[in-house]
Amino acid sequence: MSDFVQFETNVPQELRLAYDDGKLVETRFGDKVFYTLMDGRTLSVLPSLSAVITEKEIKKGEPFLMCKREVRANGKGKASIQWVIDRAGTDPLSIDLTQTAQQPRATAAAVPQQLV
User: Fold this and answer.
1) Do 43 and 4 form a contact (C-beta atoms < 8 A)?
2) SS in 3 state form for 42-98?
């Protein structure tokens, strides 16, 4: 069995899909989409985050960045997690989540912490 991708908070990872599409699987924790990566690891995401990968038209072998960002409303209060996906060459830590969250084609995808 392959290793699953593990994310540290605020540390972007460059990933490459081995296939264009993931596989939707029912798990005891709900639906997940599994992607095989070119390095042999497996990426497990919720369908809402898989939709962002599809929307951005990320294809097999193309490098992209994925980051588990910790954000706080107005810089204070309890932290929440935002998942950011973008093509390689961008800085996912510099994306203004307050603006992208208002747009339907947002770069950032807000999904629950139970993603991985």
Assistant:
1) yes
2) EEEECHHHHHHHHHCCCCCCCEEEEEEEEECHHHCCCCEEEEEEEECCCCCCCCCHH
pTM of the model: 0.74
Reported as type and span, the H/E element at residue 99 is helix 97-100
Pairing of strands 80-87, 63-71: antiparallel
Domain boundaries, the chain: 13-115
Sign of CA dihedral 53, 109, 91, 80: negative
Q: pLDDT tens for residues 30-79?
A: 999 999 999 999 999 999 999 999 999 999 999 999 999 998 877 778 88
Do 59 and 20 form a contact (C-beta atoms < 8 A)? yes
How is residue 23 written in tokens?
Answer: 């596989």
Tell me which H or E stretch contains 27.
strand 23-27
- Residue 3: how many CB atoms within 10 A of its CB? 10
- According to DSSP, the residues that pair with 25 across neighbouring strands are 32
